[in-house]
Design a protein that fits this description.
By secondary structure, the protein is mainly α. Helices cover about 80% and strands about 0% of the residues. It contains 18 helices and no strands.
């Protein structure tokens, strides 16, 4: 039975209008600079602390689930909050509203880049962006090392993944590394003690929970859609190249379901496909897309907007953005009913332990590949090292470091 305070909170949540939710998350999306944890923190402050629409425990469950599912953590958390408040439509409204400001900003930045990209001063700014982006990616791998590389086997997986990506590369190798690392995790850690994350939180892994409730149709439709997205990506329909909009959506919707561990993990995968495979953008344009995505308040995956616009204008930007965010959000909403089963399954945690280790290696490889597109001289080295120092020593937000790197590029080249 609910306590009186919980009854009041539930009643207030039920009265939240969709327009009010849209306005609330639109403001969050326009101001939440600083990465996914900054956005999650703002959502926590507004939804739990101020509005009291959800309990702290519910919010923590959502963050925990978003962390182990594919896709951008922050947007998945927003979809979870919207779903808890107003069902599937609430999830769609909240996720759309929080992404919209970054989408509009990046469309404007992309138009300016494509229009003025050949101006010498812009070229010099981009010469500063590329080493800064390489430093940001490398710092992301450094930050993940503590939780991801807890033993010798994880370190070996990371090193192997890095060398394979640098020496061989390719999308199918990336997929093979992820699946192989997951399989190794299942076998190697099946008798391991609880993970460091479980020990730190004081939570012991639980056996699989009973099957979640819900009508069969409510599971079949999302499952069929998610299977379709992934299937079309792996086995591309013949002749899809003749329809750039369809190819954009199939590519980004499929890739989005293979992203585990946050936005920076996605960089090597998207790089292999859109730069080396499909040749939609050059290496320099890809680095610029990442840089421009960093100075918007949204997640790093908003960089998909740049690529979509480059391929097929405004429609392409919309399809790429929708493809990168919608399937993981749909999976998040569907999996919310199975929260205990997914969070506490030791098998899933063992597989993710291997995947996270390999992902660190993939991120290091991505930093090296991005760095190879820079014209390395003393000025490039200064920008690279300055960015690393700013990130590691002084904890400066990337929203400030990227513009500063561009300015240094203009002044030093």
């Amino acid at each position: 039975m609910l306590a009186q305070g919980d009854k009041i909170r539930v009643r207030e949540a039920e009265e939240v209008g969709l327009l009010f939710l849209a306005w609330t998350f639109l403001r969050i999306g326009a101001t939440a600079f600083g990465g996914f944890m900054a956005l999650v923190s703002v959502v926590q402050t507004i939804v739990v602390d101020r509005k009291k629409w959800l309990r702290t425990e519910e919010m923590l469950d959502g963050v925990s689930l978003a962390t182990i599912l594919p896709g951008p953590v922050a947007i998945n958390v927003v979809a979870y909050v919207g779903y808890k408040l107003r069902g599937g439509l609430g999830a769609l409204v909240c996720a759309t509203a929080v992404v919209l400001p970054s989408f509009l900003l990046l469309v404007a930045f992309t138009i300016a880049y494509l229009e003025w990209g050949e101006i010498p001063v812009v070229d010099k700014a981009l010469m500063g962006f590329i080493p800064a982006v390489a430093a940001i990616i490398l710092n992301a791998a450094w930050g993940m090392r503590i939780k991801a590389l807890g033993g010798w086997l994880e370190i070996v997986l990371a090193i192997l993944a890095c060398f394979l990506m640098i020496l061989v590369g390719g999308f199918y190798l990336t997929l093979g590394i992820v699946l192989g690392a997951g399989g190794i995790g299942l076998l190697a850690f099946r008798r391991a003690s609880p993970s460091a994350q479980d020990r730190d939180s004081g939570r012991e892994p639980l056996p699989d929970a009973p099957g979640p409730p819900g009508s069969l149709l409510s599971w079949l439709i999302p499952s069929a859609l998610l299977t379709l997205f992934l299937g079309l990506f792996v086995i591309r329909p013949p002749g899809i190249e003749a329809s750039p909009p369809a190819e954009l959506f199939v590519t980004f919707s499929g890739m989005s379901l293979m992203l585990f561990g946050g936005g920076f993990v996605f960089i090597p995968l998207i790089q292999e496909i859109v730069v080396d495979g499909l040749h939609w953008v050059s290496q320099a344009e890809f680095a610029s897309a990442i840089a421009l995505g960093q100075i918007t308040p949204g997640p790093i995956l908003i960089s998909a907007t740049f690529i979509g616009y480059k391929v097929y204008g405004l429609l392409g930007a919309f399809l790429a953005t929708f493809g990168i965010f919608f399937p993981p959000a749909l999976l998040m909403v569907t999996a919310s009913r199975a929260l205990d089963r997914i969070n506490h399954s030791q098998l899933i945690q063992n597989a993710l332990r291997g995947i996270r280790a390999a992902v660190v290696g993939l991120i290091v490889a991505a930093a090296i590949v991005v760095g190879q597109s820079a014209a390395w001289d003393w000025a490039t080295l200064v920008i690279f090292l300055s960015t690393l120092v700013g990130l590691i020593r002084f904890k400066i937000d990337v929203a400030w470091l990227i513009p500063a790197a561009g300015l240094l590029g203009v002044l030093l080249h």
